[in-house]
Amino acid sequence: MARNMPRHYDSFHIGSDDAMSVSATEWLIVLVIREPVIYTVASATDALHLLSSDWPIQDSSSFLEAMEACQGVGNGNVTNEAAQYAFLAAAMDAGIAFEFP
């Protein structure tokens, strides 16, 4: 069952675990359902890869905010928590189902 996240931005496992964080909060694993594929998104780097490779709406403000937030984690400017909220908001805006395992 997919869950919805609140719309605020506070602070696919393709093979990357190298996301950096400016806080102790880690990225919560999210299953993103893009039929027929289910992606395991375990880091901001995974989210960034999915956003840039298999995202249906790439011109919305939530998509751009998610891209910037996920890049910001790698730069040490954004927390994992903030990036994950932005990523999940972009998923909701695009109508993409997701769930937490």
Ordered list of secondary-structure elements with their pairings:
Layout lengths: L29 E5 L2 E5 L2 H10 L7 H15 L4 H15 L2 E3 L2
Antiparallel strand pairs: 1-2, 1-3
Structure characteristics:
101 residues, alpha+beta, 3 helices, 13% strand, disordered N terminus
Shape: globular
Structural class designation: alpha+beta
Q: Any idea what the radius of gyration is?
A: 12 Å
- Tally of helical runs: 3
Report how far apart the termini are. Answer: 10 Å
> β content, as a range?
5-15%
Helix and strand run: EEHHHE
Largest sheet: 3 strands, antiparallel
Instruction: Please state the average pLDDT score.
Output: 80
Strands ordered across the widest β-sheet: 2-1-3
Helix-residue proportion: 25-40%
Number of strands: 3
Q: Would you identify the regions where 5 or more consecutive residues have pLDDT less than 50? A: 1-24
How is this structure best summarized?
With 101 residues, this protein is α+β, with helices and mostly antiparallel strands.
Can you describe this structure?
This protein has a 3-stranded antiparallel β-sheet with strand order 2-1-3, with helices on one face. It is globular, with a radius of gyration of 12 Å. The chain has helices at residues 44-53, 61-75, 80-94; strands at 30-34, 37-41, 97-99. It has a domain at 43-99. With 101 residues, the protein is α+β, with helices and mostly antiparallel strands.
